[in-house]
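Z., the sequence and structure:
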Amino acid sequence: MAGEPQADCLFCKIVAGEVPATIVRETETTVAFRDINPQAPTHVLIIPRVHHPDAATLAAAEPQVVADIMREAREVAAGDGVEDTGYRVVFNTGSGAGQTVFHAHLHVLGGRGLQWPPG
């Protein structure tokens, strides 16, 4: 059920502390951690503590949590020193967009030039 931890979800296991991650920040509603395959010097994932399969589902069910994630993106960027030089935030929604873990998550990327359009 949406919102409930899923036993087979990698990100739910990170939230529960069952899988190690390099945690950058935690709030009541979010966890931010470094991506294990970084695509930029700053590459942090911000996830909700509640399970929703993608950003669209999360936004429909819990819009305040999406706002919390976006607020944390700014804090992550500031903490990594990329707030002033620029950073990108990305929600991949669905496999066609490159989503591989089906627990809503936001990528925060920065610390290098980011071309447009993205690959």
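The first strand starts at residue 23 and ends at 26. The chain has three helices and five strands.

Let me know what you think.
H.
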